[in-house]
TrEMBL record, chain B:
InterPro entries: AAA+_ATPase, ABC_transporter-like_ATP-bd, FeS-cluster_ATPase_SufC, P-loop_NTPase. Pfam families: ABC_tran (PF00005). Residues 2-246 form the ABC transporter domain. SUPFAM superfamilies: P-loop containing nucleoside triphosphate hydrolases (SSF52540). The lineage of its organism: Bacteria, Pseudomonadati, Bacteroidota, Flavobacteriia, Flavobacteriales. This is Fe-S cluster assembly ATPase SufC. Keywords: ATP-binding, Nucleotide-binding. Belongs to the ABC transporter superfamily. Ycf16 family. CDD domains: ABC_FeS_Assembly. The gene is sufC. SMART domains: AAA.
Amino acid sequence: MAFENRVDIDHSVHDIRMEAIKIFEEKGFPTKKDEAWKYTSLNALLKNDYSVFPKEESALEFKDIKKYFVHDIDSYRIVFIDGVYSSHLSQTSHEGLDVCIMSSALTKPKYQLVIENYFNKIAKKDDSLTSLNTAFSREGAFINIPKGKVVDKPIQILHFATGKESSLMLQPRNLVVVGENAHVQIIERHQSLTDNPVLTNAVTEIYTHKRGIVDYYKIQNDNQDASLIDNTYISQQQSSHASVHTFSFGGKLTRNNLQFFHKGEYINSTLKGITITEDKQHVDHSTLVHHATPNCESHQDYKGIYADRSTGVFNGRIIVEKEAQKTNGFQQNNNILIDDKATVNAKPQLEIFADDVKCSHGCTIGQLDDEALFYLQTRGIPKKEARALLMYAFANNVLESVKIPEVKIRINKLIAMKLGVNIGFDL
Amino acid sequence: MLKIENLHASVEDKEILRGINLEVKPGEVHAIMGPNGSGKSTLSSVIAGNEDFEITKGSIKFLGEDIDALAPEERAHKGIFLSFQYPVEIPGVSVTNFMKTAINESRRAQGLEDMPANEMLRKIREKSELLEIDRKFLSRSLNQGFSGGEKKRNEIFQMAMLEPKLAILDETDSGLDIDALRIVSNGVNRLKSKDNAVVVITHYQRLLEYIVPDFVHVLLNGRIVKSGGKELALELEEKGYDWIKQEVAV
């Protein structure tokens, strides 16, 4: 892929992009030889000849895509179609906060300082896919919440692929800056509307300042021809709270690289996920919480339900630096294999260099409990529905920390849909 | 209503039931007693359709129909209810929502519409009052963090909601204090009618002071070795099971 001549040289981030190209050229796409990619292969995906910059623009009507939004809540919306910003589907704002797009943030002088301070600062520079995105991303969400601002409604970021191109690669780039005492909730979704292959290589950088709160919900329910590599990097200042909930139900291959970096004391980080897969789906959660400061907490809880020949990976890394005394780091990963052919590779990695810490991890791989199934059946609930109820119960505690009720309802519906049952898991 | 003939059942090639004969008619209360390991819980599981057990010989008829091949939920839809000794915890699903699901799945199986919400709520209120169940209890996750007594009371609440023709109560008295025992028994007695039947499976005579049986059967080594009236339970309480073992041996 000859990208070089497509780089926008006028951007203030030109040097950063050139550097990123170099790194990507050196490293190339990751292979199974890389320890971090041991169980996830991109080979099959990279056989497609992706268009990187779509030639023509597509339009979509809101009524046709309404169902992909959490549409029963008032929200800000940032919508992209084949990587291009759609102003008529979006509802942005510059009143008391900035909910807009990267392309304008990168070009308008008033954002120059924010870009200089935050763009590509926490994203991992030696990561080849992150570098690929850094080099060629043109668009994404730019969210800048000033000090003390509690955002009145959630922000939804949606990416649609229309299939105008026979195969499409998207490189969205999001930047979220949450000021002191500010609070924001974000819902993100990638949705392909076509059978043509789509590969999204997304990078999101999130910065929370003192006592800032960010709650991020990733709804991954794409169709079976779409794949996603999500790289999310979060930098937290003192007493800030950041949570990321990842709901992985759809997509052909999904890789979530989720990394938290602590830059102050009394930080709280929450990483939770529910994964439900079937057919030959593959979902990989690779998490990192880097405790570098004292008195911080992190909570990880990932539940996975794997059917058919689907495969899963949980690679959860916690690093506790020598300085990070009184760290509380919890990690839980529980998996259910529905079929004999389904597999999951779970690898908790705790690297602890401080001596006064509380860290725990638990990892289980099992099957549904036959006795519980029988119990539900004796109450007249058919086997299929009974299994679904048990799976729901298994994954339930991940939903408890979802703060937007409508998101919780939506996830409940998606779980019911995914499990092929018509029971309302309303709470 | 229930007719069991020469029933043999095994789990993993180990025979547990070795020729059970039992007939339960509408309006009757039967008690099945026996020492640990005699096959009491297996019998209740097999009647309710637990697939872990294989029926190797004999038959189970319910309302004149052979039910051997039916799934547990199909038996439930026909009116068989099993109260568990160890009810299962279902986090995230409230008692109320669980009952809605159970009732509506049964109705769907019978080609009926879902029960209207107001009717459902009225029924839940009525039956929870019967079992002296607090409203707050109904919004808790099913069996999660329930005490032993709460679990059992909740089992009988479910029975009240589902209105089965045949209720099998497996060790419902275990883990109950005297107040809970009174509430649970009272609930069962209030639900009794000439059209339904109850099979009480128990280790001790205590429960039978509250739920008075018409017949008492003694289960030993997978067979019913003695049947009698309610006085048999008292005799067992007094003398234990050894005399029956000796009697059978002779």
